[in-house]
Amino acid sequence: MIKEYVALAKPGIIRLNAFAAFGGFWVASKWEIDWLLLLYMLVGVSLVMASACVVNNYWDRELDKKMERTKGRALPMNRIKPAHVLIYAVVLGIAGHAILFFLVNPLAGLLGFVGFAVYVFVYTMWLKRTSTWNTSIGGISGAMPPVVGYCAVTNEVDAGAWLLFALMFFWQPPHFWSLAIRRVEEYRAAGFPMLPVVKGVPRTKLQMIPYTLLLVPTSILLYTYDYVGIVFMVVSVLIAVLWLVHTLMGLNKSGEETTKWAKTNFMYSIYYLMVVFLIMIADTNGIAA
Question: How do residues 35-84 score in pLDDT, each as one tens digit?
Fold first, then answer.
């Protein structure tokens, strides 16, 4: 039963976004780390994200029965009562927001709440069921973790916060659309108006290009404004260009080749984010001097 509750919080998503929050904190700290503050921030962010994910599972429980990828989850299979899941989400949310507001700082708490509200109310309850803009606008919530980490240290929203936001915001649509292309028939059956369902796979491939391309100037600006060192800029630009090239290669794919391409593109997006934040953390040292 414990495993079921852990799965409801989508630990894979939490790990990836907590790592991004850690990166934002490290960039702002420049290796002068307040370890207790870092711990509070990571716990608070993780709990807030967990709460949002649990609400997402609760709200989508009927539609999840229609998708192969989700029909085996605890709620669609009636292994957990929906009321218990809702209580679980509320407890996680209250705990996470309290930690951010009172043990980190009010700005971090506010940013955490904005991310939570966009994911739950704008994305899950509204756009996911009504518009192809669900991924793009919903990306605001996914872009918040590194900003929360950064502002936990600076207590202000400056150029560094905006650039970290941009990095995560531009990363998300090609990441999620790669998954949506692979699962397009499942999303269609469930009634979710994902971009490849409504506009088609070729249009989705085209729309991924500008987001991937914009990762390049974002990385350059992080270096230009002295938030990271030259190693970060070179590596991040290089892997962004490689991702862009792979995205462009998808334009000529069709049928089963498109599915294979989308799977590779999805995995590349995950590795891209991990490498970018690892290099960001390592190369912040040059700024600390």
Answer: 999 999 999 999 999 999 999 999 989 888 888 788 888 888 889 999 99
- CA torsion angle 22 26 32 34 (round to 10): -20
CATH number of 2-288: 1.10.600
CA quadruple 197, 116, 92, 281: dihedral positive or negative? Answer: positive
High-pLDDT (> 90) share of the chain, %: 85
CA 287 to chain centre: 26
* 61 phi/psi in degrees, rounded to 5: -60, -35
- The values of phi and psi at residue 225, to 5°, are -90, 15
Q: How many residues does the chain have?
A: 289
Alpha-helical regions (H) of the chain: 2-8, 11-29, 35-59, 82-99, 106-117, 128-130, 134-142, 144-154, 159-182, 184-190, 195-198, 201-224, 230-249, 256-283, 285-288
Question: Roughly how many angstroms between the first and final C-alpha of the chain, as a whole number?
Answer: 50
CB 7 within 8 A of CB 74: yes
Average pLDDT, the chain: 94
Domains of the chain, residue spans: 2-288
